[in-house]
């Protein structure tokens, strides 16, 4: 009687990077490639075959998070809901993006790697730069529809994005645990604070 040997289990690059990213953020870059391989369930040779070196794994795992989904939402323009509600919903997503971005920056710094090595896009093509352009355009459309006051949309977009980026940085500096609920509350309170100044 013949015995069928199943194909070896394959692990996608995305799954490897997801686990490696979590490890680097939680434990620092001192974790060995063999340790990552053990957690993933592959050999360290497999890791090196796919990413070249431990440094290659770090760079791939800690590259900027993908912002295309929520930037695409901004590019679609405001929908029929209230602008304030939409800003809160968008803000929650943007705030989470900057929190994740800050965690990756911290881990890169801990590994002694300059962010520009992992963040290969030109500054003007980066996620934050694309977000600024898309948010400014979204705010302009809302203003032109009479759903925002006569505000300088460039200044407002800068204020919004800076508020979320600075919160992520401050949470790290102050050793504050960043939880989704805390982020949601911050975003809501932020827009409560500025709404009177930007309302139509």
In a few lines, what is going on in this structure?
Helix content is about 70%, strand content about 0%. The chain contains 10 helices and no strands. It is elongated and about 60 Å long.
List the helices and strands and how they pair.
Layout: H1 13-27, H2 33-40, H3 44-51, H4 54-61, H5 68-75, H6 83-110, H7 115-118, H8 127-144, H9 153-173, H10 180-198
Helix pairs in contact: 1-2, 1-4, 2-3, 5-8, 6-9, 6-10, 8-9
Fold and architecture overview:
- The chain is 68% helix and 0% strand.
- By secondary structure, it is an all-alpha fold.
- Helix 6 (83-110) crosses helix 9 (153-173).
- It is elongated, with a radius of gyration of 21 Å.
- The termini are far apart.
Features:
200 residues, 0% strand, 68% helix, 10 helices, mainly alpha, elongated
Strand content: under 5%
> What is the tally of helical segments?
10
Shape from CA axes?
elongated
Helix content: 55-70%
Distance between the termini: 79 Å
Structural class: mainly alpha
Rg, alpha carbons: 21 Å
Low-confidence region ranges: 1-8
Tell how many strands the DSSP assignment holds: 0
Q: Order of SSEs, N→C?
A: HHHHHHHHHH
- For the residues shown, what is the average pLDDT? 87
Main beta sheet: strand number and arrangement?
none
